[in-house]
Amino acid sequence: DLVMAAVQQFGMALAYALEALKEDSELGMTACQQNGSAVEYLSNELKDDRDLVMIAVQQNGWALEYASEALKKDSELVMAAVEQNGCALEYVPEERKNDR
């Protein structure tokens, strides 16, 4: 409850949680809804959770930087990130940057 209260107020507080809590999808979802950049502190497994990462990039396109390599190839997710912040294009795989 303590960490949940913290990430509800400031998603980046996830950085200070114990590693085991960084695997909790509900906690991760709450953190990313508050600040998409919190995806940086999620477990690798959650960085591959499409729904969670979609919420993160819709809140902050820069969160694409921390998505799994597989999700960086997901057209819909990449488009959501770039629409939220055009600079997210920096984290799109090279082969996708040829898409006009």
Structure overview:
With 100 residues, the chain is mainly α. The protein is 38% helix and 0% strand. It has 4 helices and no strands. The longest helix is centred in the N-terminal third of the chain and has 10 residues. The radius of gyration is 13 Å and the shape is elongated.
Shape: elongated
Low-confidence stretches: none
Largest sheet: none
Class by alpha and beta content? mainly alpha
Cα gyration radius (Å): 13 Å
What is the share of helical residues? 25-40%
Cα end-to-end separation: 46 Å
List the helices and strands and how they pair.
Layout: H1 2-9, H2 25-34, H3 50-59, H4 75-84
Which properties best describe this structure?
100 residues; mainly alpha
